[in-house]
Write a structure and sequence with these properties.
mainly alpha; about 80% helix; about 100 residues
Length: about 100
């Protein structure tokens, strides 16, 4: 009987003393993704003195970042900050499209 009680006590102690795995929240992950996308977009959009070929080359990168940003924002429609970043990224894509198309003329 004492062995059974000891085994039960040991098992209880073992299972209650084990650390629980902490999962990363989806929101934190989405926030990190959005911050990364926003910083990449800012880095590209703040470049100065771009040639026509540079503007056209960066256009696809900026618009791809914009699409990814808006895809992420679409999953979190309740997040106003995500929607704002989506709109801003679309504006940046439009600026690069305009700059590239004006070079072709």
């Amino acid at each position: 009987m004492t062995r059974l009680a000891f085994a039960f006590l040991a098992a209880t102690l073992l299972f209650t003393a084990c650390p629980k795995a902490v999962t990363t929240t989806v929101t934190g992950s989405e926030d990190q993704q959005m911050d990364t996308l926003a910083s990449q977009l800012e880095e590209l959009s703040t470049r100065q003195g771009l040639s026509c070929s540079d503007s056209c080359s960066l256009k696809s990168k900026v618009c791809d970042l914009s699409k990814t940003t808006c895809d992420l924002a679409e999953k979190a429609v309740d997040r106003a900050d995500f929607q704002k970043k989506c709109r801003h990224s679309q504006e940046e894509c439009a600026k690069f499209n305009e700059a590239c198309s004006s070079c072709s003329k």
